[in-house]
Amino acid sequence: MSFSMWLGLLAICALGAVSPGPSLAMVVRHTLGGGRSHGILCAWAHSIGIGIYALITLLGLAALLKHYPLVFNAIAVAGGLYLAWLGWKALTARGGMQQKLAAGAPVSMWAAARDGLAISLLNPKIMLFFMALFSQFVLAAQHSGGKSLIVLTPVIVDGLWYTIIAFMLSQPKVLDKLRAKAQLIDRITGVVLMLLAVRVVVSLF
User: Fold this and answer.
1) How many CB atoms lie within 10 A of CB 46?
2) Which membrane topology describes this protein (predicted)?
């Protein structure tokens, strides 16, 4: 893979990472609930899911999914249901994340990792992203070095971006202000996730 081709891959991965969506909402929520370590763990778990999609595309399985729409629809529906479940949890959270912490019930590290990985693996938009734009880079990579870059570039870009988000939000002054608005953030996050879930399901029909 040429350097100019890799720069194109880097630019597309960066644009995909910085786009606001459920992934950003999840990293923000876990940083707010558990602090910097939870946010960073959620970020890198999310990036692992991104890497899995990159690897699937590299192995040619994306083309297989493209020719079997029922498989894609099943994954899309599963993703929509998971988004709806996360949205419902946020909407029905009692007292906001700050009161949960005060009550001695912080969000676990396991939950941060689980949600970070699942929000990427079950997001059909990410699959569409790789299927539509990523294949051109797969074709350009003829050697093992280029193929490794195809997988590692989106993983590192995604993980670093959300790590930066977690660092910014975990600064004491910023985090204290956000925690004061924790219940409102829960409600907004819940509404956004529910709307995204509806959009995913509706787009299939």
Assistant:
1) 31
2) Multi-pass membrane protein
